Amino acid sequence: MSNFLDTDHKRKSAVLTSLVMSLIIVALFFFGMTYLDPPEEFGIAINFGTSEVGQGNIQPTEPLRAAPQEVAKEPQEAVKEQVIQSAPKVAEEVLTQNTEDAIVIKKQLEAKKKADEVARKERAQQEAIAKQQAEELEKRKKLDALIGGVSNSNGTATGGQGDDNQAGDKGKITGDPNANGYYGNGGGGSGGDYQLGSRKPISRPKPDYICDEEGLVVVSIEVNIYGKVINATPGVKGSTNTAACLLSQAKEAALKTTWQPDSNAPSKQIGVIKYRFSLSQ
What we know:
- The chain is an alpha+beta fold.
- Among the domains are: about 75-150; about 190-275, TolA/TonB C-terminal domain (2-Layer Sandwich), CATH 3.30.2420.10.
- It has three helices and six strands; from the N terminus they run ααββββαββ.
- A four-stranded antiparallel beta sheet has the order 1-6-3-4, covered by helices on one side.
- The protein is elongated.
- About 10% of the residues are buried.
C-alpha cells in the first residue's frame, strides 16, 4: 500500500483540511452554543412576600430590608466569634509562657538540689576527717601520758643535729650513732694508699666527709726533704669521683700529711696519696 502523503499535493491538501476543520471547531465553540441553562422564563412575576409577618395594604415591588434587630445581631455575633477565635491564641500564649517558666524553675530547683547534696556530702566528709583526727590526737595524748610525753602534738621527735642550717636530725639509718661525721668515712688506709718512694708517712689525717658522694680520689703531692707536703693536686689519673666536695677535702688532708725527713731526697719529691670515700660507716 502506497503512502497517502507521498506527493506535495497530498500533503498540502492534508494541511488545508486540518486547518479548515480547526476553524470550524473554534467557530462552533464560540458561536454555536448560545442557549441558556436554565432557559429564559416568560410570564408575570408575582411577589409572595419576604417575611413571615407583615403590615399594610400596599404590596412592595422590591424585597424589604432585614429587620433592625437582625442587623444589630450581626456585629455582636461577629464580635463574639472574633473573641472566641482570639481566646484560644491568648490561652495558648499564656500556657506556653507558663510552661517555659515552669521548666526553668524546675531546672533551677534540680540544680539547687544537686548543689545542696554535694555540699552535704562534703560537710559529712569533713566532719568524718575531723572526728578521725580528734580520735588520733586523743590516742596520741594517752600514749604520751604512758611513755612520759616524749613526743609533741604532731607525733614527731623534738630537736635535731646537722650542718645544713635546716631543721632535722642529719645522718643515715645504716651509720654508726657514735660517728663524728654525717656522711661516711674518708678512708685513707696504709700500704699502697701512701706512696713516696721508701719514705713513710708520719701523720696521716683523714679527710672530712661533707657530701653525699663516694669513690676514689687520687692526690699527686710534692714533698720537700723535711717531710712537709708543699703542693697537692687532687683528682689526677686513677680517680673515680671528682666531685668538688671530695677533691677539696682530699687536698686539705694531703697538705696536712707529714713524711719522714730525708736529706738525700730531692727538694721536691713526687708522691701519691689515695683516699677512698665510702658512704658506709
